[in-house]
Amino acid sequence: MKDIRILVLDDEKVFRKEIKEFLDGEGFTALTAERPSEAFEILQENQIDIMILDLRLPEMDGLQVLEKVKNEYPDIEVIMITGHGDMDAVINAMRLGAVEFFPKPFRLLDMRAAIQRTKRYISLHEQLKEISQTYSLVSKDLIESIGSEIIGNSFGIRQVVDLMGKVAKTDNTSVLITGESGTGKELVARGIHYLSSRKKSYFYAVNCSAIPDSLFESEFFGHKKGAFTGANEDKAGWFEVAHGGTLFLDEVVEMQPAMQSKLLRVLEERKIRRIGSSVDIPIDVRIIAATNQDVNKLIEEGKFRSDLYYRLNSFQIHIPPLRERKEDIPLLLDYYLKHISKKLGKKITSVDPMIEKAMLNYSFPGNVREMRNMIERAIILSDSGRLTMKNFVGLIAPQVESNASGVIGEDIFDLELIEKIVIMKALEKTGYKKSEAAQLLNITRQALDRRIEKYDINL
Ligand SMILES: Nc1ncnc2c1ncn2[C@@H]1O[C@H](COP(=O)(O)OP(=O)(O)OP(=O)(O)O)[C@@H](O)[C@H]1O
């Protein structure tokens, strides 16, 4: 389980000190506050799991604090304490959602037991949350076949999975998948194949931009022995290999016009002829084509045949870029952290919450592939199981590039994130000499220390 962070809100200085020492000694991270306003500031800036809350407080009643905490931070579990043993307050506190109640004075051993119980409760709660979270939108069987899960819960990705299921039910409707690089076009193409009745035959993926023009025809249609120099034996082309299955044509718009005509004829006639042969071979293949380019523009420019486009485009699936479905970012982050750390055999014990914030502010031009690679690199770079912004160089680099005004650019509005990035930049610039960095930032050395701790900046 992750580190447990506990906030103690009590106006008695001696009590606060004593309980903090005890909690620190027990291996928890303990923060303390004297008044509710101070506690709410801490809550705004820190991820807290458990709050130990005194009933009698300055500024506002402990029960009011409890109610506000439960409303604003429903995941925080609250242990109430009081020196006054007031039964009504106990009942009210329980009603408002406190998990434990302690009359003062109590033994620290009892507090330890209460925290352990609460910890177990939090862990159970997290497991339940994980189970109910629709991590993957496709079934287990399909995951095994396509080699990866399809993660996301945004409207855009749910629609993609829905269309995938619908077109899979048809037998040979051609599909055109559009979307920027790294959005998961091949993943979706595989999904269609393995959801369809063709799943027992081949799914054959061809990257059209990688095949030299001279080999195109023989790769697609095959050749007869002696058909040209180097054709030493009969060879089947991809259409024959994928017979009964699916041929995935990635970057289809990269095909030369001559090949585009030939492909169109195959789609119309459903038969091929190997080079050098006079025999037609009937083929039964579903074509799924994909592109990350603007096909309409290519048609206008005369680079792509419109008749081929209409043939391929009987059914179109568009995968939106990741920046247009930001709700998927936390799910993908969580998923990749778990899967990649497991794959690399590296246990990740803490993740700076700034990472998710920064990702939500980042435009991911390389989409899910970029995010995956970024997380993998960060896990490899991480020390002692802690993932911090320092491990995500690519993530902050575009914003840190020039100067602070670059950070306060068009798409970052998160003040805390900006503060953290500016502090990191000052530290980097001064070779991690704190006094110099503080001077550069125009704050005292103590103020810098407080912020380094607050933002968990690795030095
Ligand atoms: N929704 C998703 N859930 C999980 N993984 C995903 C998702 N979308 C993409 N990926 C992963 O991102 C990587 C890139 O996906 P894929 O190769 O399918 O993209 P693509 O759109 O075909 O890219 P390109 O246009 O560059 O060929 C793969 O590792 C894939 O498993």
Could you characterize what this model shows?
49% of the residues lie in helices and 14% in strands. It is of the alpha/beta class and 459 residues long. The protein folds into 3 domains: 5-132, Rossmann fold, CATH 3.40.50.2300; 140-320, 3-Layer(aba) Sandwich (Rossmann fold), CATH 3.40.50.300; 325-454, Helicase, Ruva Protein, domain 3 (Orthogonal Bundle). The strands form 5 sheets. It has a 5-stranded parallel β-sheet, sandwiched between helices. The longest helix is centred in the N-terminal third of the chain and has 25 residues, at 108-132. The modification 4-aspartylphosphate is found at residue 54. This is Sigma-54-dependent Fis family transcriptional regulator. Pfam families: AAA_lid_14, HTH_8, Response_reg, Sigma54_activat.
**E-strand count:** 16
Mean pLDDT rating: 84
Q: Please name the fourth-level CATH homologous superfamily of the largest domain.
A: P-loop containing nucleotide triphosphate hydrolases
**What is the CATH architecture assignment of the largest domain?**
3-Layer(aba) Sandwich
Query: Uncertain runs with pLDDT below 50, 5 residues or more?
Result: 131-135, 397-411
Structural class: alpha/beta
Q: How many domain regions?
A: 3
**Relative strand content:** 5-15%
Helix content: 40-55%
Bound molecules: adenosine-5'-triphosphate
Q: Any idea what the radius of gyration is?
A: 30 Å
| Annotated CATH topology of the largest domain | Rossmann fold
Gross morphology is elongated
**How many DSSP H or I helices?**
21
For the biggest β-sheet, the strand order reads: 2-1-3-4-5
Biggest pleated sheet:
5 strands, parallel
InterPro entries: AAA+_ATPase (IPR003593), AAA_lid_NorR (IPR058031), CheY-like_superfamily (IPR011006), Homeodomain-like_sf (IPR009057), HTH_Fis (IPR002197), P-loop_NTPase (IPR027417), Sig_transdc_resp-reg_receiver (IPR001789), Sigma_54_int (IPR002078)
GO molecular function, one term: sequence-specific DNA binding
Protein name: Sigma-54-dependent Fis family transcriptional regulator
Modified residues (4-aspartylphosphate): 54
